[in-house]
Design brief:
Elements: E1 2-3, H1 12-24, E2 28-30, H2 35-43, E3 51-53, H3 56-61
Parallel strand pairs: 1-2, 2-3
Length: 62
């Protein structure tokens, strides 16, 4: 699980780290997902690769 609710900036380095984490285990992004990281995932068409949850408790339940 990765809490992204407070992420104000995300670039290719963060996306690369998220993809590496996804390779090793099922990665759930605990949100809500702020607009800038959401835009990065949309532009790179990577949003579909991640499970999004509306908070930490919801992410733990997955």
């Amino acid at each position: 699980m990765l809490d992204v609710s407070g992420v104000a900036f995300a670039d290719s380095s963060m996306l690369n780290l998220m993809l590496l984490l996804r390779r090793t285990d099922h990665l759930v992004l605990a949100g809500p997902l702020p607009s800038q990281p959401a835009r990065l995932l949309d532009i790179t068409q990577a949003r579909a690769l991640f499970t999004l949850a509306e908070g930490i408790e919801a992410a733990r339940a997955l």
